[in-house]
Design brief:
Distance between the termini: 62 Å
Strand content: 15-25%
CATH topology of the largest domain: BirA Bifunctional Protein, domain 2
CATH class of the largest domain: Alpha Beta
CATH superfamily of the largest domain: Bira Bifunctional Protein, Domain 2
Number of helices: 18
Radius of gyration: 28 Å
CATH architecture of the largest domain: 2-Layer Sandwich
Structural class: alpha+beta
Largest sheet: 9 strands, mixed
RNA sequence: GUCAUCGUAGCUCAAUUGGUAGAGCGCUCGUUUGUGGAACGAGUGGUUGCGGAUUCGAAUUCCGUCGAUGACCCCA
């Protein structure tokens, strides 16, 4: 019975990919590779080294730190045949933390580690957020001072520049969890839960009406709501501190941010702004937090971000390792690159396409091909019996850079007319000259 | 998980009040038996996401379901 159903099902298996995930056809893969290449080259240029791990993790890794909701509802979690509770990683940070904790005694700090893993979340797909995405994770472990924060933000900035973004396309918003905490606790005297509620309200500020926001605010904060509201609206650190009581404006958090912004300015990063309303992932940040914002008025949103999380290894019972890092997702960055037209035109990796006049010349073509391949040239050999004009057309559609044709004449003379498909330029060459002509 | 809009050929979209499902692009072949991009001609293409209901008759109306997009929730 079940088998019959299965057979019927097989006849009409859907061709669509699973909900919320993407197929990568060669053109898509080209874009994906472009994005990964820029990411890799950039982080490597900062001395970062690559690591990776399985997408499967024991569920307990996430139960320790993340909220109940994340594990309970927003992950792909199942029990394996051996009764183990398994989760498809929804983020990379717990995994790196686990890896660092495991070899903490033999690792040489500071560590500059990166990875471009895919990750899964069980949630409703929407713009910029799918069920599977890839994310560059770059983390710097072992440096407490602001120099590490400067380096990480500078890396994020350089990434944007290497993608072709201009300074006025994006903005780096910075804030510090220390400032947020001291305002919540020392100034507003809020309990943890109240603080969380307030931060959620602040997060929603853009989405709800001003009156509504103000009303909620005065319910929560009473007579302090006006000062707080003023605080949120300040446009610079100086304005911000002038609104604050002295004990907070002199606090460590403020000094950190001041220091950070100065140092970034010194190395030429000017599009940094202090944003008192930047909250970002309430859980594990302990110091500075930052977000890269798209300044396009039609797409004004966060592209990616990160911050400092010094208590990362707590769950493993290890002593603290200071850490700062960020994650840059492929979906949102691709949207950004599209809106600014920064994705290069598709181009296959075929350098040379060898046309064959008939099947009998395929062995000769293969011989030439393998010689060129050993010199790092990517060669595709025609195996069809199509006519030459059609083969050339196919080579062109495949965006091969060069072609040669093999027939009676070539076999006799061992001379090959090589054609540059882009310029149309042709040249009579010998086999050993082909490499130089292409490169 | 909630709400809204949508789902027609590989792609972008048509189809009058419910009356035989069409175009452009693409693809294949030809004009062209050793060199592409153009033009022209011909051809290929669909159980209208899937299942059910109403009807003489459904792409069109209704119900369910799956999927996409956007908002909410939540947030890497």
């Amino acid at each position: 019975m079940e088998d019959n159903n299965l057979e019927e099902e097989l006849n009409k298996i859907n061709r669509e990919p699973y909900k919320g995930v993407r197929d990568f056809y060669p053109e898509d893969m080209f874009v994906q590779n472009f994005i990964f290449d820029v990411m890799r080259k950039t982080v490597i240029s900062f001395g970062f080294i690559e690591y990776n791990a399985s997408i499967l993790e024991p569920t307990s890794l996430y139960k320790a730190k993340s909220g109940e909701e994340l594990v309970g509802e927003q992950t792909y979690t199942f029990t394996d045949r051996g009764g183990r509770d398994v989760t498809l990683r929804p983020e990379m940070t717990p995994t790196v933390a686990r890896m660092v904790a495991k070899r903490k005694r033999e690792l040489i700090f500071p560590l500059r580690w990166f990875s471009i893993p895919n990750m899964f979340r069980y949630e409703r797909p929407q713009k910029g957020r799918l069920r599977e995405h890839w994310q560059l994770n770059a983390d710097l472990f072992g440096i407490k001072s602001v120099d590490a924060d400067v380096e990480i933000i500078s890396l994020a900035y350089t990434l944007m520049k290497n993608f072709g973004a201009k300074d006025n396309n994006f903005e780096i918003k910075v804030n510090s969890r220390k400032i947020i905490n001291s305002i919540l606790k020392d100034f507003l005297k809020l309990q943890d839960e109240e603080g969380t509620r307030l931060m959620k309200l602040v997060d929603k500020r853009e989405k709800i009406k001003q009156d509504e926001f103000n009303a909620e605010l005065s319910i929560m904060l009473g007579d302090k709501s006006e000062v707080f509201s003023k605080m949120l609206k300040t446009k610079s650190l100086l304005d911000f501190t002038s609104v604050l009581p002295k004990e907070i404006s002199n606090s460590e958090g403020i000094k950190d941010i001041q220091n950070l912004i100065n140092k970034l300015n010194e190395i030429g990063i000017k599009n940094v702004v202090f944003s008192p309303d930047l909250v970002r992932g309430f859980d594990y940040y302990t110091g500075i937090v930052f977000e890269i914002y798209d300044k396009n008025p039609e797409n004004n949103r966060s592209l990616f971000g990160g911050g400092r999380y010094d208590d990362l290894l707590d769950i493993f019972g290890e002593e603290k390792v200071p850490a700062v890092g960020f994650g840059m997702g492929d979906v949102t960055i691709k949207d950004f690159l599209n809106t600014y037209d920064l994705i290069p035109k598709y181009n296959s990796s075929v350098d040379l396409y060898i046309c064959t006049l008939s099947n009998e010349y395929i062995p000769t073509a293969n011989k030439i091909a393998s010689e060129l391949r050993s010199k790092n040239i990517n060669v595709e050999v025609n195996l069809t019996d199509k006519k030459i004009p059609d083969q050339v057309k196919i080579a062109s559609k495949k965006t091969a850079s060069f072609i040669i044709c093999i027939g009676e004449n070539e076999v006799k003379t061992e001379k090959y007319k090589i054609k540059n498909m882009e310029t149309g330029e042709e040249k009579e060459t010998q086999l050993n000259e082909i490499h130089d002509f292409i490169k």
